Amino acid sequence: MNNQSIEAKVLNILEENNLVAEIKKAIELDEEVKIAGIIFESKKYSKLNRLSGNRNIDVNNVKKIESSVVENGYKKSQPIIVDSDLSIIDGQHRLQVCKNMDIPVYFTVEGASDDSLKLTQDLNRNQKNWKLSDYIQSFADRGYKDYQNFIEFISREKITISLGIWFLYKSRNGETQNKIKEGRLKCAELEIYKIKSTLYKIRELKNAIPSNLKQEKEIRKAMESDKIAVPLMVIMEELNYSQERMLKQISTLYRSIDKRSMAVAGDSLVEMYNHKLGKNSPNRLRAYNEISQSLR
Predict the structure, then answer these.
(1) CA dihedral in degrees (120, 126, 131, 137; nearest 10)?
(2) Which is the most buried residue in 36, 45, 168, 194, by most CB within 10 A?
(3) Does residue 248 share a domain with residue 170?
(4) pLDDT grade for 215, boundaries at 50, 70 and 90
């Protein structure tokens, strides 16, 4: 379609939707009035693109929105937002709902942005929709090598994102999470090597626990959860820590591990390790509340 045809089409749309009359009314209110945006309606779903680096579609979120649309209808006042390339800045879940239900999608075009993805993240951060995993996947999709390394590693080792972050930073606090959200995660080969070494030791301890009874199976499973793996990580960094001794102790005293929280698990692991060691033995571990000072 050439420019002349497009201009004619624009005028037709304005007339058909009574927008010319609405604009005239607005000018009567304020001669300097400006149009802040227009809401469009379309069923050409394929013309609207996924923004590279945006989070993946959450099926559960789609189902929730579908239920809301069935109950309340799809509101024109909640259009999806696209940039000048028709990439979705906000509303990819609403678009999926419209596709699934075969209903028109309402959308508005945001002016060209220096970073449409950052606008998407900011919008969703304010709405508390983006999870830490969404940020990690987003930066990986955009080619950030450390994020790609991190995803590849936790997938290969079958550990959670949360545990991977604990191993990298000994932290899950706000400062650490902000680093990750801002693209500053560091996960090079050296960090991966260190984590693999720690994981190997944890899995060695896990395999020392019998696996034929329900209670034992639960403890084995918990060995690679934050509550036990994180305390083990910091305990293993003690200069007088002995993997050989921990293996010996855990093979018989594993039922004394208390997995209610990291602090409680850490206390029980240190107590188990020190069992039958004299108070003045140089092989005794410090109290867990001292060891865990490095965690944030």
Answers:
(1) 20
(2) 168
(3) no
(4) confident
